[in-house]
Amino acid sequence: xxxxxxxxxxxxxxxxxxxxxxxxxxxxxxxxxxxxxxxxxxxxxxxxxxxxxxxxxxxxxxxxxxxxxxxxxxxxxxxxxxxxxxxxxxxxxxxxxxxxxxxxxxxxxxxxxxxxxxxxxxxxxxxxxxxxxxxxxxxxxxxxxxxxxxxxxxxxxxxxxxxxxxxxxxxxxxxxxxxxxxxxxxxxxxxxxxxxxxxxxxxxxxxxxxxxxxxxxxxxxxxxxxxxxxxxxxxxxxxxxxxxxxxxxxxxxxxxxxxxxxxxxxxxxxxxxxxxxxxxxxxxxxxxxxxxxxxxxxxxxxxxxxxxx
Length: 309
Description:
Low-confidence stretches: 1-5, 212-217
Strand order of the largest sheet: 10-9-8-11-13-12
Distance between the termini: 35 Å
CATH topology of the largest domain: Rossmann fold
Mean pLDDT: 88
Order of helices and strands: EEEEEEEEHEHEHEHHEEHHHH
CATH superfamily of the largest domain: P-loop containing nucleotide triphosphate hydrolases
Shape: globular
């Protein structure tokens, strides 16, 4: 994975301006943690938008609040998009923690889409199998085999055991900016509370500061971890469109295609029906999972439909 400086130095920053990182958002209101550790409620200047949790920004203090002047260059941005809308998850992320569970059984399609989104943005994915103590976990393990075969780490945990969860996951999180992502009902909130015991109180506090009322479950929030590192929590999702990706981005999200592609007869092979396609040959040999190739063709079809709309 590409490594760059996590806290970019601003250029041409005036004395009045300050640098910080967005740790939560609600509509056009953002909570920004400044370099001195203070937290300030900020608004984008004018009609500018597009900021998201994890962004490093330059702000100008205005009383007890502040104005976001500009967003510093991002290392990456993870988001989903479909026919209706785009939803940003977070920026400047090192690792994506995809939370799945055996009950209710997670969707391999959604997990696969999250992996494509991560790989296309140069984010390291890790799958967390929560509720791994349930008897039905064996079915989930079989479902996850296709991802394990790609080299994706599969970490098993039971978030109800907070101490064991901390012992298992904290070594993976320290020193990194990690995003928690998962379908609804996977136990992600319980996992967050095990890792950040004061998360609920902190979320409520910042929700009140933002004037967000009780809608705390719909907000993305960054938490500092003891010993270093950040954990970004995001709302559960039931869809993961990737219509913002170009064809070459989608291919990058399937690392198992990398070597077979070198054997394709045509330089512009789409890896769906062309003769002499290295990917299709690998698929026939069982070297590429049929379910993975089916996801690839679905993503291409969705994005072609968007282009022809």
